[in-house]
Amino acid sequence: MDIIRPQPLTKAAFARFGEVLQTEGADELVINEGMATRFHDLAKVDVAPDAGRPAISIFRAKPRRLPLDIAMFERHPLASQAFYPISGRPWLVVVASDDAGRPGEIHAFLAGGTQGVNYARSVWHHPLLALEDVSDFLVVDRAGDDNLQEFRLDRRCRLEI
Ligand SMILES: NC(=O)N[C@@H](O)C(=O)O
Ligand code: NI
């Protein structure tokens, strides 16, 4: 079984899969008469195809046990999907390139407790992977059908930290 190890989540390393949601390096705007800072326009919410409507949800995720077997990927052809950790714990992001309509090269990232991601439309990713304890995530994606596609890997791989 192939072993994969997560790399630190950075904007540059994740750029081909979407955006990293973090205050570091963001466009900062002082607002509300100096009482707040807006970290502006962090990612593109892309749910417009077929008159899609954005939805804001909270996912309460149970922690995954490590090592973790990666057996499947999914993607949302009609929608981007953003996750931001409300509970402030580290979590895992596992994505794959597209290889003729199936997941190709796998990339794993360890996200900090103040880092989120926005998966671009149709990016292969593993469903939410929380760590350490039950954790809440703010999620921005598409209300209704997003034409979810799932793919079971022929060969599982094992994620170790
Ligand atoms: N099912 C659901 O909405 N979640 C997945 O899309 C996911 O990426 O976690
Ligand atoms: Ni998803």
TrEMBL record:
CDD domains with a match to the protein in the record: cupin_UAH
One GO BP annotation of this record: allantoin catabolic process
Pathway note: Nitrogen metabolism; (S)-allantoin degradation
Required cofactor names: Ni(2+)
Listed GO MF terms: ureidoglycolate hydrolase activity; ureidoglycolate lyase activity
Keyword Lyase part of the UniProt annotation: yes
UniProt xrefs under SUPFAM superfamilies: RmlC-like cupins (SSF51182)
Family in the record: Belongs to the ureidoglycolate lyase family.
NCBIfam families: PRK13395.1
Subunit and interaction comment: Homodimer.
Name listed for the protein in its UniProt record: Ureidoglycolate lyase
Protein's gene: allA
